[in-house]
């Protein structure tokens, strides 16, 4: 279900993803927002992906600003951008770059 009937709906792998609106499906909580390309996937409660391609925000309250193949898998983790970065520590942050890993709580990579 989509919270706004004027949204553009894209379907991929049995999940409904919509750009710019809050979405829900059997595998996506209602309070997940996707504003980027349809190959991004969010599964964490209140997680957000603003843009890019092939990004995954699975940590609760996690965020990805953009880029490609970035992952946030811990609570309150953030990747601002870049390629193939992983923020897997609670409250970790990666500013950008390539293949960075922030796997300890409160870790910062930039």
Tell me what the structure shows.
The strands form three sheets. The protein has a seven-stranded mixed beta sheet with strand order 3-4-6-8-10-12-14, with no helix packed on it. A five-stranded parallel beta sheet has the order 5-7-9-11-13, with no helix packed on it. The chain has strands at residues 9-12, 15-18, 21-25, 28-34, 41-42, 48-49, 56-57, 63-64, 71-72, 78-79, 86-87, 93-94, 101-102, 108-109. It is built from no helices and 14 strands. With 110 residues, it is mostly beta strands. The model is unreliable at 1-24 (pLDDT under 50). Helices cover 0% and strands 36% of the residues. The N and C termini lie far apart (38 Å).
Give a brief description.
A hairpin with a 2-residue loop joins strand 1 (9-12) and strand 2. Helix content is 0%, strand content 36%. With 110 residues, the chain is mostly beta strands.
User: Please, what is the average pLDDT?
Assistant: 76
List low-pLDDT spans.
1-24
Order of helices and strands: EEEEEEEEEEEEEE
Radius of gyration: 13 Å
Relative strand content:
35-45%
Descriptive key words:
110 residues, mainly beta, seven-stranded mixed beta sheet, five-stranded parallel beta sheet, 0% helix, 36% strand, disordered N terminus
Secondary-structure blueprint of this entry?
Elements: E1 9-12, E2 15-18, E3 21-25, E4 28-34, E5 41-42, E6 48-49, E7 56-57, E8 63-64, E9 71-72, E10 78-79, E11 86-87, E12 93-94, E13 101-102, E14 108-109
Parallel strand pairs: 4-6, 5-7, 6-8, 7-9, 8-10, 9-11, 10-12, 11-13, 12-14
Antiparallel strand pairs: 1-2, 3-4
